[in-house]
Design a protein that fits this description.
Layout (H helix, E strand, L loop, with lengths): L2 H10 L18 H11 L5 H9 L3 H12 L3 H14 L7 E7 L5 H13 L5 E7 L12 H4 L1 H4 L4 E7 L9 H12 L4 E5 L5 H7 L4 E7 L11 H6 L2 E5 L6 H15 L12 E4 L8 H17 L2 H27 L4 H13 L5 H13 L3
Helix pairs in contact: 3-5, 4-5, 4-9
């Protein structure tokens, strides 16, 4: 075949389209932005500089330290713990209030209404709102600032939403540390909103002075589905959304709860929990809720129970911190992930029972000491 015939044969298979190579596409994320973000996550000040900023009420510094507290990096946690220790002498001066309730009760709306009421009285409040995290993706919406728009813009209020993943029912040592930091920053009222999933109520109750349970009226049997333990923990119950056509239902619910509380044994301090009604939208009954909180605090201080409870909580969290440290140390051991995978397979395939597997792993762990 001649050279000319060869070229003609080749052209038969070539497309008429001529595609230019073009230029390489840039990364979808600007590397300068990534660099800037990483720099922000680094520790930017010394321990003393952070402490000084917190004591001066610098909210940017406060937020940065809380981020270090919530960080999963050991370096950040160690650094944050030093800051918390130095802030401790300036803390312990606030009223700590835990707020929980059934889904749809309007915890965020209530907190905003109560928060606005308190800031109008020149009180400085910090809201620690624990957002539910996905157990699958570990992601969290962290939407409390959007739900509390008015309060978020109040100069006397500080709102800090935190993801609940990885801690005891959504709150634990991280929340305890955040309380201390907020108190050192000058906030005299700390409101802690729970996820409302059971275990978080117990954790919050162990770190607050007053525990408020929000309930709804007109949602079927008022006492159905409410754990007795949560009712016993409550220092007061507030029937929310008591407005419009719901007022009569709220009054009936109030009577039902008052009757139910009489069946419970008296609290250790001798306080009889009160049942109130309120409307966050109409801002009615909010003052009664706050007056009840103050009445309770005055009562337990007079009975010396306030200090007893604070000391008991400090002891409780010492043991919780030990348990958490042991838990973390076990799972941080070299090769533990591989061992767990091997024993998981044996347990799942029924080649070994769960108790024996855990015993072998624990014994193997202690051999390193």
């Amino acid at each position: 075949m001649s050279e000319k015939d060869s070229d003609n044969k080749k052209n038969e298979f070539e497309s008429a389209l001529n595609v230019q190579k073009g230029v390489d596409q840039p990364d979808s994320i600007n590397p300068d932005i990534i660099k800037k973000f990483r720099l922000k996550k680094k520790i930017q000040h010394t321990v003393d500089e952070y402490v000084d900023g917190i004591l001066k009420g610098n909210r940017t510094i406060l937020s940065q330290v809380i981020t270090l507290v919530e960080s999963s990096l050991a370096e950040h946690n160690k650094f944050a713990t030093e800051i918390v220790e130095k802030c401790l002498p300036y803390a312990q001066k606030s009223i700590r209030i835990g707020i929980t309730g059934v889904p749809g009760v309007g915890k965020s709306t209530f907190i905003e209404s109560l928060g606005k009421y308190l800031t109008n009285q020149n009180r400085k409040i910090a809201v620690l709102a624990v957002d539910p995290s996905s157990e699958i993706t570990k992601g969290s919406v962290l939407g409390d600032k959007t739900r509390m728009e008015e309060l978020a813009s109040d100069p006397n209020a500080f709102i800090r939403p935190s993801p609940s993943a990885g801690s005891l029912g959504g709150v634990a040592k991280k929340t305890r540390h955040t309380i201390i930091l907020c108190e050192a920053a000058g906030f005299d009222t700390i409101l802690i909103e729970t996820v409302g999933v059971g275990q978080s109520e117990t954790a919050v109750h162990s770190m607050v002075d007053f525990f408020l349970l929000l309930m709804l009226a007109g949602a079927g049997d008022e006492l159905q589905g409410i754990k007795r333990g949560i009712m016993e923990m409550a220092d007061a119950i507030a029937i929310a959304k008591a407005d419009g056509d719901n007022i009569t239902k709220a009054k009936l619910a109030k009577i039902e709860y008052q009757n139910a509380l009489h069946l419970f044994p008296p609290s250790e301090c001798g306080w009889s929990p009160k049942v109130l009604t309120c409307s966050s939208l109409k801002s009615t009954g909010i003052d009664n809720v706050w007056n009840t909180i103050i009445e309770y605090i005055d009562y337990i201080k007079k009975e010396d129970f306030f200090e007893i409870q604070r000391r008991r909580q400090a002891k409780y969290w010492m043991y919780e911190s030990i348990n958490e440290a042991l838990h973390d140390h076990f799972y941080d051991q070299e090769g533990i992930k591989e061992k767990l995978t091997i024993f998981e397979e044996k347990v799942v395939e029924r080649k070994m029972n769960s108790f024996l597997a855990s015993k072998i792993l624990i014994e193997d762990y202690f051999k390193n000491f």
